[in-house]
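Before we proceed, please read the two lines closing this message. Report back on whether the structure tokens fit the sequence:
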Amino acid sequence: MAHAEQSPIRSLSPQRREDVLLRLRRIEGQVRGVQRMVEEGRDCREIVTQVAAIKSALASVNSQVLQCYASNCLGDEEQPRDRTIAELIELFQGSR
């Protein structure tokens, strides 16, 4: 995003941050498990199943972070609503 002015930092709430970190640690473990599966020469179908699970878990984390961002931004009266909506669309499209 190339904006003339810097957007304010929008961080996760402490509770949301802990939930996201927990989920990311689980995903990290899943990725390591897939690495072992590949190293061991496991069946491709099993690997594809695990990769799909990882992708789904990442999408869930991304959805939570986007929801938090949307909640924080849409109530911000200092930033024009059109700009906020454009940023949300850009974030969402970039996360696909």
